[in-house]
């Protein structure tokens, strides 16, 4: 458990006092409090956060999945490595999703790749809390369902299951909610290609929807940088004078 800091908020102090060793990590940044707990403690901690008069987090505002694969990595070259031409000169093009499925990354992902993040609101105390729980197994990411405590978590958990493949133990109806029934994979995982695995179209001859191999190639899209410095302003002025004279 992280040591107590002198500048922490009353909420953080109360969480440490009431939860004790069940606090895996507690962080405060930008006036936001993030509590990390283990999967086996999630239901007990969530129940306490909802029912304890000191907290009263009665509202579950949001629940989502997170894939921490490639977390902290960048696909941008350093200033010593880049060339002097092209808008994509600093991009390696090997970031998450920028690959063909046969060439997908096979390096070892970081420990505790998948997590579930919950945002809670206490109307009584006018407080918000971010609750995070890491899945212990990357091959079968599994955490307890919170639908028994906050029924509104139902569709949020279905979305996290659909997009990240996170399984919520105890969910009453865990099935896809955004992709279709025949969809393969989980599109928000970092090792899922940006172009997808298949594309869908309606075949008028067969009179049904058909699945076909993806017909587009992955590419690196880099936003064009718009500058408003003196040099460019002068260049525009000189170009305007040139067109007026001719």
CATH class: Alpha Beta
Name the CATH homologous superfamily: NADH:ubiquinone oxidoreductase Nqo5 subunit
Which CATH architecture would you pick?
2-Layer Sandwich
Estimate the strand proportion.
15-25%
Report the structural category: alpha/beta
The number of helical elements comes to 4
Could you describe the largest sheet, including whether it forms a barrel?
Answer: 5 strands, mixed
Which residue ranges are poorly predicted, with pLDDT under 50 across at least 5 consecutive positions? Answer: none
Please give the number of β-strands. Answer: 9
Spatial order of strands in the largest sheet: 1-2-5-4-3
Question: What does it look like?
Answer:
The chain has about 250 residues and is α/β, with parallel strands linked by helices. It has one domain (about 10-245): Beta Polymerase, domain 2. It has helices spanning about 10-20, 40-50, 155-165, 230-245, and strands at about 25-30, 30-35, 60-65, 115-120, 125-135, 140-145, 165-170, 200-205, 210-215. It has a 5-stranded mixed beta sheet. It has a two-stranded parallel sheet with strand order 6-7. Strands 8-9 form a two-stranded antiparallel ribbon. Helix 3 links the parallel strand 6 (about 140-145) and strand 7. The longest helix has 16 residues, at about 230-245. It is extended. The model has no long low-confidence stretch (mean pLDDT about 80).
């Amino acid at each position: 458990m992280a040591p107590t800091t002198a500048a922490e908020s009353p909420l953080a102090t109360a969480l440490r006092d009431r939860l004790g060793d069940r606090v895996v990590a507690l962080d405060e940044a930008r006036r936001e409090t993030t509590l990390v707990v283990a999967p086996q403690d999630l239901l007990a901690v969530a129940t306490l956060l909802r029912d304890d008069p000191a907290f009263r987090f009665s509202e579950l505002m949001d629940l989502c999945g997170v894939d921490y694969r490639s977390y902290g990595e960048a696909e941008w070259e350093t200033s010593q490595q880049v060339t002097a031409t092209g808008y994509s000169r600093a991009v390696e093009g090997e970031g998450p999703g920028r690959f063909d499925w046969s060439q997908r990354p096979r390096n070892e992902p970081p420990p505790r790749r998948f997590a579930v993040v919950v945002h809670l609101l206490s109307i009584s105390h006018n407080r918000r809390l971010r609750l995070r729980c890491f899945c212990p197994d990357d091959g079968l990411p599994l955490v307890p369902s919170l639908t028994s405590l906050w029924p509104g978590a139902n569709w949020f958990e279905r979305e996290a299951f659909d997009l990240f493949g996170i399984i919520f133990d105890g969910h009453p109806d865990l099935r896809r909610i955004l992709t279709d029934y025949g969809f393969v994979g989980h599109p928000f995982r970092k090792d899922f290609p940006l172009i997808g695995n298949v594309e869908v179209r309606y075949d008028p001859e067969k009179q049904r929807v058909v699945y076909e191999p993806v017909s587009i190639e992955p590419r690196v899209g880099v936003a064009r940088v718009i500058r408003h410095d003196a040099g460019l302003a002068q260049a525009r002025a000189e170009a305007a004078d040139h067109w007026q004279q001719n």
